[in-house]
Every structure is written in structure tokens, then in C-alpha cells.
Amino acid sequence: METTMSDYSTHPTASRISAREFIVLIALLMSVVAISIDALLPALGFIANDIPLAHPNQAQYLISILFLGMAIGQLVCGPLSDATGRKKILYAGIVLILLGSLICFMAQDINTLLLGRFIQGLGVAGPYVSAISIVRDKYTGNEMARIMSLVMLIFILVPAIAPSLGQAVLLVSSWRYIFVLYIVYALIIGVWIFLRLEETLPRDYRIPFSTRGFVDGFKEVISNYTTMCYTLCMGLFFGSFLGYLNSSQQIFQELFNTGQLFTLYFGILALVFGASSLVNARFVQKWGMDYLCNRAVLGIVLSSALFLALQLVIEPNLWAFLVYAAVLFFCFGLVFGNVNAMAMEPMGHVAGIAAAIIGAFSSIMSMTIGTVIGQLYNGTLMPITCGFLILGMMAYGILLLAGGYKDKQALNVPPAEPAASTDDKPALDQQ
């Protein structure tokens, strides 16, 4: 009898770690990106004052460059994780995080800082890409869904807490010690993995890396109209969101003079995003991904148009901005997971490579867009508002095109042939 991956998910050697401990560890692995970005946000102003820069906005590059490293890292880590096993990629990622953090800690100029952050970005791709694969290796079906739901409950809290961790470091030391925080974080999860997590992908199930397979997967992604539409949408959505992330410290601490309360406001908005993700998980089966995405993008466009009109009349205060941002974050929570799932929907036969390519393509696109929006920051909310409005309108147009194409394809599907009698042919084994 042929063995399947689901058979391995109940193998006794894969159960050294308890379910609760496993959930916490996976949540920490998935959170490495959020920690790497959000904990540094409160320090951008200090870095701009301490490191020679041509313009204070250049400190934002420390956020964007991490996304570039992560995008490239995804292309490598995804296929190699399937070829060599999960733990090797985890260890490689942790080593790169340690190296990048050490370079940043010792940096005396912006170029060295950017090099360290790029290496960090390469590193965070390892834990980020491997985490979901590990869950898929160990669990299937309803149990996998239950584990992922519990992981997400922890994961949602991290963006709300991470800026406060960075702020706590700044209260007792310099911004350089935030990179020590990253080193400690990486060491903790590295030791934890070494002591408690067994390799979840047996040798028999590994897929040797093939350049041709990667190229074929790339061609498959870029030639699929539906996948490319939703991938472009991901890049546009996250590009506008990254523009906000890049500018957030300046908006809160310089424009609105919130001081240390920046981390509180940022955390509240992150919780709104997390709550929206939970709402999406509850209603997506009832209303469908397309419906929720379209309504959420309309919410982004309309709220941005109204907020832009408000700025033409008066200068919005902090509370007006928080209301606008809360609407945006709630809408984004409905968009991100769904648009990624819709991009992957036609790619089931090349899921691993497709996920890496889609993630890398949308990350590079969003990094470019977000960097431009961030560099346009001029002490007002106009750049990010225009970014959300214009990119939201573009994304909405692409969503309509993708939806129309899917409807057309559905109409062109030929009627199914009558099923053959089970007496005439043997049943197929389900994989």
C-alpha cells in the first residue's frame, strides 16, 4: 500500500513536542517578520539623528530593504525546504538573522545598516516559509485547521506588542540594542528547535530541487491570467500598506507628537487588523472570497477619498486619522488572506514553487511602491492617503477584471460527462 504524507502526520516520531508547545513555537516562527519590522519602528527617529543621512526619510529604507531580502529568500527557501528538510532551512535562516543583526549592531553608516537588514531579510524568510510547511507535515484536515487557528490567535498579537518591545529597549539603552533583542529572539527559537522539534519532512517525501521545475513553475504562474491579476493586487495592497509602515513613526511621533504613545496607537491598529482577520475567517465560507475582497477594497477607496477631501478643507487631528486608519486596517484584514488564496487557487499542481514566486513577486512590487510612498512623506498625510486611494482604485479595477475572467471561464466549461458505473472501472485511490 502506498504511503501518503497524511500517514506520516500521525507517525509517533513526529510527536516529541506537545501540541501546546508546538503552537507557541510555530507562532514565534511566523512572527519573526513582524518582530523584525515593528520592533524597529520606534527607533527610526533615533537612527536618523545618530547615523549620517542625506534626508531623515532615508531611515525608512531599513524597513523596505528587509522586504527585498525576504522576497529573494522566499524564492530560495521554499524549494530548498522541500528538497533538504525543514530544520536545515530553519537553522540557515537563524544564522542569517544572527549575522545581519550583528552587522547592524556594529554599523556606523547607513550602507552597513542596510547590508545588515538585507541579510536579516534573507534570514527571516527561512522561519516564515517553513512554519506553515511544518504544520502541514504534522497535521491534516480539521486538526490542521484547528492548530492554525490557535497559531493565528497568538500571531495576531505580535504586531501589537512588537513596537512596545522596541520602545522598552529605547527606554533603557540605545537603538543598537534592538538588534541584540533580535539576536536573543533568534537564539531562543534556534535552541528550542534543536531541543524539541524533530524533522517533519522524511527523506522519502523530499522533492529534489530542479532548475527546470522552478522555471516551469515560474512560467505557469506568469502565464495564468487569474493568478497574475491577484498577485498584482497583492503587490498594490501591500505596497500602500508598506508606505504607511515606512512613514508611521514620523506620522505619529513627529506630525502628531505622540512620543512614546506611538507604540500604543500602532498596537491598537494592529489589533483592529487582527480582529478583521478573525471576522474574515468566520464569514468567508458564507460570503466567499471575491465578495469580501471587493467590498473591502471599496471601503479602502471610499474612506481614502473622504479623508483626502477632508484634508483639502482642514488639517485632520490625531483622532480623525485613527478613525480613518482603523477603517483601512479592518478592510486590509479582509483583503490580504483572501487575495493570496485566490492567487494560489489555480496553482494546486505547483503549490510550493508557486507560493514562493507569488510571494517574491508581490513583495518586490510592494517594496518598490512602499519605498516611493514613504520617500514622498512631507510632514502631511497626503502621500499615504493618495497612495491608498490610487492603488486601491487600481486594485479594484484588476479585481473586476479577474472576476469577469473567472465568470467567463466558468461559462465556457463543458458539461461533465456522465460518471461511469463502478462496475465498469476500478475506483481511484485518493492521494
From TrEMBL:
It is a multi-pass membrane protein. GO terms for cellular component: plasma membrane. GO terms for molecular function: xenobiotic transmembrane transporter activity. SUPFAM superfamilies: MFS general substrate transporter. One of its GO terms (biological process) is xenobiotic detoxification by transmembrane export across the plasma membrane. NCBIfam families: efflux_Bcr_CflA. Its main location: membrane. This is Bcr/CflA family efflux transporter. The chain crosses the membrane at residues 22-47, 59-77, 89-108, 114-135, 147-165, 177-197, 222-244, 264-284, 296-314, 320-339, 351-374, 380-402. Residues 22-410 form the Major facilitator superfamily (MFS) profile domain. InterPro entries: Efflux_drug-R_Bcr/CmlA, MFS, MFS_dom, MFS_Efflux_Transporters, MFS_trans_sf. Signal peptide: none annotated. Belongs to the major facilitator superfamily. Bcr/CmlA family. Keywords: Cell inner membrane, Cell membrane, Membrane, Transmembrane, Transmembrane helix, Transport. Pfam families: MFS_1. It is found in: Cell inner membrane; Cell membrane. It comes from Cellvibrio japonicus (strain Ueda107) (Pseudomonas fluorescens subsp. cellulosa).
